[in-house]
């Protein structure tokens, strides 16, 4: 199954993607996590994108599309994948469609996570991410780790992302409304979109997602 997950920053895409990917036995591909891994490893790509992430802008399409295509070409993604944070604008959505079409493939579903803005702001403010693996995500109030500052899954250090500060969050929300939201209509025209309310506990959101996926 080939699925795209959309929703504002802090909606719970990464949290749900990790759970759904496990249930569906497909890889979770997060462009945000891939960029952060490049930054922490100090790669050439990481150096080019670091200030863009810190300021909450979008990385140029050519870099993003090339990185996503490389990851999707890996063997574990041949049978399907769950994309989290990609595509993030119409240009990326068209590039994804074109590369899937070239391989005789298409998307099966686009899952749109709906969360009111005051709630995403609270989710982002309390988010803590693991330095060893950014698929390990916690929240100081809603999903606290057993030991403060320590990842329950792997013992890694938990940190607050640079771009989760209030000023940057406003910018990221504006970018979401301007650039990313239009892809929902683009995919709606293809009959692919299921919108669910993600204003519920994590397991309930997972149930809602599994109930609407084809
Ligand atoms: P969130 O889900 O909180 O919005 P992500 O981890 O998905 O955050 O993305 C973090 C940052 O990485 C974005 O603000 C942007 O700078 C960059 N990024 C991630 N995915 C893309 C993409 N598809 N296109 C451009 N930039 C991206
Ligand atoms: P996204 O990838 O969309 O930016 P995350 O999955 O990183 O979002 O979630 C943002 C924050 O909200 C994290 O701290 C996470 O623990 C928390 N969170 C995720 N889903 C829920 C939920 N259903 N209820 C409460 N908090 C949640």
TrEMBL record:
Keywords, A to Z, come to: ATP-binding, Cytoplasm, Kinase, Nucleotide biosynthesis, Nucleotide-binding, Transferase
Signal peptide start and end residues:
none
Which residues make up the binding site for ATP?
Answer: 10-15, 127, 137-138, 200
Q: A single GO BP annotation from the record?
A: AMP salvage
Q: Which domain of life is it from?
A: Bacteria
Which positions are annotated as binding AMP?
Answer: 31, 36, 57-59, 85-88, 92, 161, 172
One annotated Gene Ontology cellular component of this protein: cytoplasm
**Which InterPro entries would you find in this protein's record?**
Adenyl_kin_sub, Adenylat/UMP-CMP_kin, Adenylat_kinase_CS, Adenylate_kinase_lid-dom, P-loop_NTPase
Report the Pfam families cross-referenced here.
Answer: ADK, ADK_lid
Question: Where do the segments described as NMP lie?
Answer: 30-59
Annotated GO MF terms: AMP kinase activity; ATP binding
Q: Where in the cell is it found?
A: Cytoplasm
Q: In which pathway does it act?
A: Purine metabolism; AMP biosynthesis via salvage pathway; AMP from ADP: step 1/1
Looking at the keywords, is ATP-binding present?
yes
Give the Adenylate kinase active site lid domain ranges.
127-163
Q: Which reaction does it catalyse?
A: AMP + ATP = 2 ADP
Enzyme Commission code(s) on record: 2.7.4.3
Family statement:
Belongs to the adenylate kinase family.
PANTHER family per UniProt: NUCLEOTIDE KINASE (PTHR23359)
- HAMAP family per UniProt: Adenylate_kinase_Adk
Subunit comment for this entry? Monomer.
* Domain writeup: Consists of three domains, a large central CORE domain and two small peripheral domains, NMPbind and LID, which undergo movements during catalysis. The LID domain closes over the site of phosphoryl transfer upon ATP binding. Assembling and dissambling the active center during each catalytic cycle provides an effective means to prevent ATP hydrolysis.
As for what it does, the entry says: Catalyzes the reversible transfer of the terminal phosphate group between ATP and AMP. Plays an important role in cellular energy homeostasis and in adenine nucleotide metabolism.
Query: What's this protein's name?
Result: Adenylate kinase
- What species is this protein from? Streptomyces zhaozhouensis
The encoding gene is adk
């Amino acid at each position: 199954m080939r699925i795209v997950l959309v929703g504002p920053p802090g909606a719970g895409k990464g949290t749900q993607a990790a759970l759904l990917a496990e249930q569906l036995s497909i890889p979770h591909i997060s462009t945000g996590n891939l960029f952060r891994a490049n930054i922490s490893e100090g790669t050439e790509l990481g150096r080019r994108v670091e200030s863009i992430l810190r300021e909450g802008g979008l990385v140029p399409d050519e870099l993003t599309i090339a990185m996503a295509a490389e990851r999707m070409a890996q063997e574990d993604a041949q049978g399907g994948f769950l994309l989290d944070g990609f595509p993030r604008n119409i240009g990326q959505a068209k590039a994804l469609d074109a590369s899937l079409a070239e391989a005789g493939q298409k998307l099966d579903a686009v899952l749109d996570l709906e969360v009111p803005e005051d709630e995403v702001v609270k989710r982002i403010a309390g988010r803590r991410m693991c330095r060893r693996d950014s698929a390990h995500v916690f929240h100081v109030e809603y999903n606290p780790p057993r030991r403060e500052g320590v990842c329950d899954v792997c013992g890694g250090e938990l940190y607050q992302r640079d771009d989760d500060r209030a000023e940057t969050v406003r910018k990221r929300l504006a970018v979401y409304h301007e650039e990313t939201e239009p892809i929902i209509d683009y995919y709606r025209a293809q009959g692919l979109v299921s919108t669910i309310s993600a204003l519920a506990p994590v397991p309930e959101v997972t149930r809602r997602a599994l109930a609407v996926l084809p």
